[in-house]
Backbone:
């Protein structure tokens, strides 16, 4: 009887330790994807059904204003910003953000307004990391519209080296 009990305890310990290693490996992979985003980026294009008027991230401006926008991502403190330069009907915007990558492919960010603490802001945006290399990545936002889903893809190109 003692043999079976001891065998059971060893088996449970082994399975628990394997699960812990798997969780650690997943966290490490998430961290790797996250750190690869460090640096300066520019949105080079936005792909979506062109018949629609997309106004991303509650900025109340056309999606085309984001093409050419500059994004700074600093993973070690989860901060960053995006800058939209004034052109045509596009206003000049500098927006601080907090961001993270979860599960290796979920990019989350929230805008931080002047005088606001990030922990007090519970509203944000979720996109899927659909491709990534050293010098580019693409994020997809799936937006419900009239009973269907519209996918908006933001294509980023590195403009500055990792810091």
Residues:
């Amino acid at each position: 009887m003692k043999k079976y009990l001891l065998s059971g305890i060893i088996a449970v310990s082994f399975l628990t330790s394997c699960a812990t290693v798997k969780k650690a490996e997943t966290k490490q992979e998430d961290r790797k994807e996250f750190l690869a985003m460090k640096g300066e980026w520019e949105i080079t294009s936005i792909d979506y059904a062109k018949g629609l008027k997309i106004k991303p991230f509650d900025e109340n401006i056309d999606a085309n204003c984001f093409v050419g926008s500059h994004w700074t991502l600093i993973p070690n403190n989860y901060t960053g910003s995006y800058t939209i330069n004034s052109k045509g009907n596009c206003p000049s915007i500098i927006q601080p953000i907090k961001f993270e990558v979860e599960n290796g492919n979920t990019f989350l960010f929230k805008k931080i307004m002047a005088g606001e603490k990030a922990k007090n802001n519970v509203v944000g945006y979720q996109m899927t990391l659909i491709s990534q290399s050293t010098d580019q990545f693409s994020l997809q936002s799936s937006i419900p519209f009239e009973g269907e889903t519209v996918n908006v893809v933001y294509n980023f190109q590195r403009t500055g080296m990792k810091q």
